[in-house]
Amino acid sequence: GAVVSQHPSWVICKSGTSVKIECRSLDFQATTMFWYRQFPKQSLMLMATSNEGSKATYEQGVEKDKFLINHASLTLSTLTVTSAHPEDSSFYICSASRTSGSTHEQFFGPGTRLTVL
Amino acid sequence: AQSVTQLDSHVSVSEGTPVLLRCNYSSSYSPSLFWYVQHPNKGLQLLLKYTSAATLVKGINGFEAEFKKSETSFHLTKPSAHMSDAAEYFCVVQSGYSTLTFGKGTMLLVSP
Q: Tens digits of per-residue pLDDT, B27-44?
């Protein structure tokens, strides 16, 4: 159990277009999901925390108008990169938090490779 | 506040020899600590986690890590490296219900 999927796994788009990435928890409900960004050969940086039914909480330095997050259900969060530019090219990884008793464990999706031309 | 330092950006070993990936952390509260592995262009896979139970934690694929509070360390070890272990490894700290903080990663290279 505890499987998280992302779609698409990779996407190439033109500069100025918008791209939507989906993150789904397949076999559990996740009130909280997280979006990370990973540059080549670097670590994961938390972009935002997505809470079902409320606004996302963005980390310092992350533009909320550029990276739109919607967590409309307990199994789905979406990240939309608006007016994408080449510097937005990156590996985007989501995770979903599963609560079991007093523990909150994060399960990671396989990631989405975004390339902006 | 919490932080994690992975002391080596790259570690090279020969197949069949021991692996040691070092990690030091700082945390205001009793931390949870994790090791994740990431193969190229893949997501993260949890190797093992420490959550205030036994200090020696055994994970998947023969990996284990020991939580040493006095040294604020959580080093990852494996007795005998396999070619398939070549990947990026991340040490991660979490204090209470806070978000995860990732180390910068250690690339493990395994030669035949």
A: 877 889 999 999 887 788
Alpha carbons B73 and B75: distance in angstroms, whole number: 6
CB contact under 8 A, A49 and B99: yes
Question: Is residue A103 predicted with pLDDT exceeding 80?
Answer: no
CB contact under 8 A, B43 and A110: yes
B40 at interface of A, judged by CB pairs closer than 8 A:
no
Query: Would you state the structure tokens that stand for residue A32, as one six-digit string?
Result: 């909280």
Do the beta carbons of residue A7 and residue A109 sit within 8 Å? no
Distance from CA of B110 to the nearest CA of A (A): 18
Amino acid code (one letter) for A63: E
Residue A112: both structure tokens together: 């989405």
Task: Decide if B41 and A111 are in contact by the 8 Å CB cutoff.
Answer: yes
pLDDT of residue A1: 67
Q: From the CA of B10, how many Å to the nearest CA of chain A?
A: 11
CB B45 within 8 A of CB B93: no
DSSP-assigned letters across all residues of A46-100: EEEEEETTS--EEPTT--TTTEEEEEEETTEEEEEE-S--GGG-EEEEEEEEEEE
Tell me the nearest-neighbour CA distance from A42 into chain B, angstroms. 6
Please name the residues in contact with A77: beta carbons below 8 A apart, sequence gap of 6 or more: A22, A23, A30, A33, A35, A50, A69, A70, A71, A94, A96
